[in-house]
Each structure stands twice: as C-alpha cells, then as structure tokens.
Specification:
The chain is α+β, with helices and mostly antiparallel strands and 784 residues long. The chain is 45% helix and 26% strand. It has 16 helices and 28 strands. A hairpin with a 2-residue loop joins strand 17 and strand 18. Helix 12 runs antiparallel to helix 13 and helix 15 packs antiparallel against helix 16. GO terms for molecular function: ATP binding; phosphorelay sensor kinase activity. This is histidine kinase. One of its GO terms (biological process) is regulation of DNA-templated transcription.
Length: 784
C-alpha cells in the first residue's frame, strides 16, 4: 500500500513537471512562430511591392536610357512609330504580360515637352507621355496600361488566407485598388465623403501607415467586419509618385497556421502522456494484484488462527460453496481430516441429509452472499446415532468491502433446547395460574368498585404532595360542584381542603371538619385521612370526604329552636316584670306633663316619654316572640299579599332610589295570616333597602316548586359577611346603629309558625337573596 502511494506521488510530480515544461514551451514556440510569420509576410509584401514598382517603372527607365542615348547621338536618329513600338510597347508587353495601348503623334517642336506619368482613375489607366526630338521635329508618344489588368494579374491572386487580401492606396490617401470594395476606389480617406464611412468608423490605422517614414512594416487594427487584423504594408514608388501596397490578414487566420503546427506538438505530448498513464496504470494494476494476493494470504492465515482457537464448529466457503477453511471441531463432526475437506463443495459432505433442512440452510447461505446475517435455532443433526440440536449462524465473509463468501458457525445447544422445553411447560402452567388469579382479582375489583360507587362519600387516593391519583364518582361530583375540576387535569386536593396538607406527614389516621364557602354557599365536610404504603415504599393517602352540611344545619336549627324556647320563657317573665313598673312610670309622666313645671322639666319629660315608648315596643316584640300567635289563618293568594306589602312601603324614604323588579308567577294558595305574612315581607323589603343606601335593584320572584311556594327577594346591596350569616335570625343580633335585633327573628318565628322556612344566600359586595318558603294549601290541608 505504501509503495502504491509513493508511486502515485512520484507520478504526480513528474506529470506536473512535464505539463509545466510543455506549457512554457508552447507559449515560447507560439511567440517565436508569430514573430517569424510577421517577418515572412512582411518580406512577401515588400517583394510584391517591388514587383509592382518594377512593372510600373519599366517605361520611365527605358525612356531615360533611350533619351540619354539619343542626346549622345545629337538627336539625328530617326524616331518613328515602329521605333517606339519595338523599344517600348513590345518590351513592356513581354516583361509585364500586359496589353499596352500606344498612340503616336508627329509634329514640330514648339515647346519643350518633358516625360510625365499620369494616373487616370476614372478610366482606370496609367498614362506615360514620351516626348522625343529628332531632326528638329517633336514626337509625342503616349502609352497607357490598364490598372485593373495590372492589379488582376499581380494583386488579386494574392490570397494568403481565406479572408486575407491586398489593396493599394496613394500617398495622398486615394484608394487605388481594393478587391472587396470596388465602389470605394478613387475616394480619399481624408475627405468627409459619407460613402467612405458606411463600413468604416474611422481610418486611423490607414492614416498611421501613410505617415510612416519606413519602407515597410505592419500594424494591428480592428476591421469593419469586427475582426482583429494585421496590415502588412510596403511602399511602391511610381516615377515621381508613391503608392502603398497593403496586405490585411485576420489575426485568427494568422494564428491558425501556427495552431496547425501546435496541434502536431500537442498530439506528440498527448501520446507521451497517454503512454505514461497506460504504463503507470499497468504497473499499479500488477502491483495492486500482488498486494491483494499477499493481503488475502495474510487474511486467511489470520482467519484460520481465529477459527482454530474456538470450540465452535466453523467452516468458511466461497460463493461457489467450495470450502476454503474449516477448523478442527468441524472436521471432527465430519470425521475427516481437515486438509481433506478443503476445496470440496459444502453440500457434498454436509452431515444433514434431510432435503427440507438442506434447502433451508442453502437459503441462509445465499442470503449471506447478499450481505445479510442469518441464524437458525434448534437445527437438528444426527451425530453418533443421536439427534442433537445446533445453533447455526451464517455471516458474510468480507475482504475489505467485497463479499467473497460465507462463514458458517455451529454451536451445540441440545441441553439448552431441553431446558427451553421445560421452561415453556412451566410458563404454560404459570400462565394458567395467572389467568385464574386475574379473574379472581377482577371480580374483587368489580366488588370494590361497586362499593366505592355506592358509598355516598367522596373517596380519593392522593400522593405525598396531595395530588389526586384516583377518585370515585362522588368525589368527581364534589369537585364538579365547586367547578374545581376544570382548572387542571392534575388536581391537588390541598388547594380545596387546606387542612389536608397538615395531615400528610401523619403516621396514623386523622379526622377533621372543614367549612368551605363557594359562590355564597356554605358547605361543611368531614374529612378522614389514612396513610398507606405502596409497593415502591412510598406513602399515599386514602381521603374520605363526607358532606355533613345538612346534618350540621339540622343540629344548628335544633340548637336555635332550643335557644329560642329558653329565650321565650325568659322573655315572657321579663316582659311581665318590666311591664308593670313601666306602666306606673308612664302614668306619672303623663300627670307631670300636664303640670307646668318649666321648659327644662317639660323637655326632660318628653325625652322620658319617648324612651318609655321604645321600651314598650321592645316589651311588645318580646311578648310576640315569646308567645307567637298564628292569628287568623285562611287560604290566601300570596301575590296579592306581596303587592299589598309593596304598596305600604312604596312611599318610604328608604325606597326612594330603589328599582323594584317583579316576576310574579301564578302559584297555589297558602294557609297564613295575611297581616303577619305582610309584616314578614315588609321587614325583608326594608332590610334590603337599608343594604342599598345609594340605591339599587330589588328583584322579587314567586314560583311553585316541590309542594312549596317560594318568594325570593334579591338585592344588589353590600351583602352579609360569612361570619354574620349564621346569626342573622338570633334575637337582639343587629348590624344597624338603631336596630333592635328582633325584625328577622320575629319574621323567622312567624314563617316557622306557618310551617315554612326562610333561606338566605349572600356574597359580600354582590348582594343577598332571602327566600320565604311556605307549604302549598290543598283542600285536604297543608301539603307536606
């Protein structure tokens, strides 16, 4: 493995060095090739310019030679048309291959003419004017050559690249020849002719070439065809004129020639590179195979050592089921030497001969070839004539990440199988016992549940913090009554019964009575807490809660009745003992008032008289309380008595800001003394008015319910405090500054005397409701 890594590191550095050298060489070669191309194309342009100059300057050169010769001979030679044609026209046609036009004029010399060359761009000709002098005569010959013919034969064939071409311009900037823009010939680049700017935005490159003083060179420029081009130029002297020959070639076409040579170089480099890769890959493959073979030998040697060190019967096979390794315990199972079973198909010597079990075993082995682990418990094999049971496990054999076979392990579990059968039998027996006991417990649970639901007391199980963990339906009713259950699913009973929290640490059963006032209702509960230990060694508590409100109220009424009876006896004696002396005092006061004893005495007697009247009123109330009388009772309609009572108190100053709301339903008659009942109603109405000194609402309702007529008086006054509520019917109990404490006690006695009752509900700040409850009268008598 280390050798492979070292090989790849060396190969990477060699390859990187090779690529770097190649890139450097390519760039250097490309630059040198480009410089060489510039030189070659520059020489080619210069040679073409020299050739063109030679053709255009043949006539001037020959004319100069002949003129010098004639002058040396004294201008006596005969100059005629044939002479000029043979010396000029034919030689020019032979040398240039051009068709030459010749015009000959013979006339007497008037003014000395000189040789001249004219370019006629409109006729596309170059004119040579050849003046001669012979025997005093002037001969003027005119030779013309077609410019198009010159350019067609010498410039148009010049096409170095597909888009490269040659064109000609004069030193003054006039376009003489252009193969692709013939319409522009004759135009000057220095003029502002719009036609010149149809395809050119500017002529900066051309102007720069015209300004150059060197004979030849090249320039880069961006052509109208939106191509980067190179212009190679050379000057063409024509007699006294100077033309400039330009050859323009796109830069990418210039590069293409270089790229062709580079392709060959790249092919050579790629060939060398591929050869190196192939050789490196071949070396790596051979080396990897060698290392893999060595690793495999080490792996099997290690595996053989491992399987020989265990008592389990182990065999290793490849994917063709041929055994490649087996330990001695497995060979002993087959009763063959270990070396003899190697290379044999596993199923040929498998000790299991039952086809069904052989198929199952083959399926497990095939699954291990897919990378799955399999096992088989209680696989039967016959060994020495005895059936034994084995635990077969089949695991995939992995060499690296490749699965190459399977490893099969056999462990004798005959004793374990026998033990499992015994355990299974015991489990069946235990299951039957548990089922029977479960039925018994279920029956006991149902009995207990019936008892719990039948008991008219709330029963719940709470933990050490007071949280309810179980409750019966009666307990749910208690919580629902006080709308306590809606607050949370996790209910803490200590929040409702505060004294329970003090009993949670007690080791013995604890009992107490607690009063709870919710929404104006006074409820009395008897609570018993009994600790129990749980299986987790924690302490829970059974809480028994019984509503004893009615029982307590009955006890209070009995005590109240006994107290009233005792008070009545005392009051009767007290009224008799006080009444007689008070009568004497009243008589003497009346006598003294008739005597004129002075202002102070008269005022004092008036005060004494008022207090005597107050004492008389108290004695009369005591007498009424001590010896209540039913008066004259007969069936009456209670709504009429109520309306009459309201008429009596309507103009009382205490009723000034009181709004009375009546909701009187049709009810049955009651057997009462209407005067005494009116006294009860008036007393309750005025007490309600006293509870609303700033004004308020008084709602009076009548209805019939369960054999009783109910008259309720609901005010919006200050309410009665919970501590005063149990004592409001006691004689002499009052919260008013000038009250006697007999109003409600007398009213209570009157209603009780009629077989009825007065019920009270009150909340501080929200008001009170007094309900007078009287039995319905029937022809058979008062209903029960």
């Amino acid at each position: 493995m280390r050798l492979n890594v070292l090989f790849f590191i060396i190969f990477f550095f060699v390859f990187s060095f090779f690529i770097t050298i190649n890139l450097f060489f390519e760039r250097s070669f490309q630059k040198e090739s480009l410089d060489l191309s510039h030189k070659e194309l520059g020489l080619l342009t210069q040679n073409l310019a020299e050739k063109l100059s030679f053709i255009l300057n043949i006539v001037p050169q020959k004319y100069s030679s002949i003129s010098n010769y004639l002058r040396s001979q004294g201008n006596v030679l005969k100059i005629d048309k044939e002479f000029i044609s043979s010396f000029f026209v034919k030689d020019l046609e032979n040398l240039s291959g051009l068709k030459v036009e010749f015009v000959y004029n013979y006339e007497k010399i008037k003014d000395k003419e000189s040789f001249n060359v004219e370019t006629d761009f409109s006729e596309r000709k170059i004119l040579y004017l050849l003046p001669f002098e012979s025997n005093g005569q002037a001969i003027l010959a005119q030779i013309s050559i077609s410019l198009d013919e010159i350019f067609q034969k010498n410039l148009k064939p010049i096409k170095l690249t597909p888009k490269g071409h040659a064109w000609l311009i004069s030193k003054e900037g006039t376009l003489i020849y252009h193969p692709t823009q013939p319409g522009m010939i004759g135009n000057n680049i220095y003029s502002n002719n719009p036609i010149c700017f149809k395809c050119h935005k500017s002529f900066e490159a051309e102007k720069m070439i015209l300004k150059e003083s060197i004979k030849s060179g090249y320039h880069y420029y961006y052509s109208p065809e939106k191509l980067d081009k190179v212009i190679y130029y050379a000057k063409v002297p024509v007699f006294d004129q100077e033309w400039i020959l330009c050859v323009s070639i796109p830069y990418d076409e210039l590069q293409s020639a270089i790229n062709k040579s580079m392709k060959l170089h790249s092919l050579i480099v790629i060939s060398i590179f591929l050869s190196m890769i192939i050789l490196g890959t071949l070396f790596y493959y051979i080396n990897t195979k060698r290392i893999a073979a060595e690793e495999k030998l080490k792996f099997y040697a290690l595996l053989e050592g491992i399987i020989e060190s265990t008592q389990s019967k182990i065999v290793v096979m490849d994917k063709t089921y041929k055994i490649v390794l087996a330990n001695t315990p497995y060979a002993n199972l087959l009763k063959r030497p270990k070396e003899e079973i190697l290379g044999i198909n596993f199923f040929e010597i498998c000790p299991q001969q039952i086809e069904m079990y052989r198929v199952t075993l083959k399926e497990l082995i095939n699954r291990s070839f897919n990378g799955e682990y399999s096992e088989l418990m209680g696989y039967p094999l016959k060994e020495n004539g005895e059936i034994k049971y084995y635990h077969i496990t089949v695991n995939p054999l992995k060499e690296g990440t490749e699965i190459t076979g399977a490893v099969l392990t056999c462990d004798d579990i005959t004793e374990e199988v026998a033990l499992r059968e015994q355990i299974k039998e015991y489990a069946n027996q235990l299951e039957k016992l548990v089922a029977k006991r479960t039925e018994e417990l279920q029956a006991e649970k149902e009995k207990l549940s019936i008892i719990m639901e039948t008991v008219n007391s709330g029963i719940c199980l709470i933990d050490e913090e007071g949280t309810i963990t179980w409750m019966n339906s009666k307990m749910e009713d208690i919580l629902e009554l006080y709308k306590y259950k809606q607050f949370s699913d996790k209910i803490n009973i200590c929040e409702l019964f505060s004294k329970i929290g003090d009993c949670l640490n007690a080791l013995a059963s604890t009992q107490f009575v607690q009063e709870i006032l919710v929404q104006g209702q006074r409820k009395i509960f008897q609570v018993q807490i009994t600790p129990v230990r749980t299986a987790e060694d924690k302490t829970n508590y059974i809480c028994l809660i019984q509503d004893i409100t009615d029982l307590k109220l009955m006890e209070e009424r009995i005590m109240q009745s006994e107290k009233l009876q005792a008070l009545a006896r005392i009051s009767a004696g007290l009224a008799h003992e006080i009444g007689n002396p008070l009568t004497s005092i009243s008589s003497y006061v009346q006598v003294l008032k008739e005597m004129d004893l002075g202002d102070f005495a008269n005022q004092a007697l008036e005060i004494i008289s008022k207090h005597i009247l107050r004492i008389s009123e108290i004695i009369r109330n005591i007498s009424s309380f001590a010896k209540p009388s039913k008066g004259e009772v007969f069936p009456v309609k209670i709504n009429e008595v109520l309306e009459g009572s309201l008429a009596l108190v309507r103009f009382d100053k205490r009723m000034k800001d009181i709004k009375v709301n009546l909701n009187l339903k049709e009810v049955s008659e009651v057997l009462v003394d209407p005067n005494q009942l009116s006294q009860v109603f008036i007393n309750i109405i005025l007490n309600a008015a006293d509870a609303m000194p700033e004004g308020g609402d008084l709602t009076i309702e009548t209805k019939e319910e369960d054999g009783y007529v109910l008259v309720s008086f609901t005010d919006t006054g200050i309410g009665i405090s919970p501590e005063n509520l149990p004592h409001i019917f006691d004689p002499f109990f009052t919260t008013k500054e000038k009250g006697t404490g007999f109003g409600l006690s007398v009213s209570y006695s009157i209603v009780k005397n009629f077989g009825g009752d007065i019920l009270v509900k009150s909340q501080i700040g929200q008001g009170s409701t007094f309900t007078v409850k009287l039995p319905v009268y029937s022809s058979q008598g008062v209903s029960a």
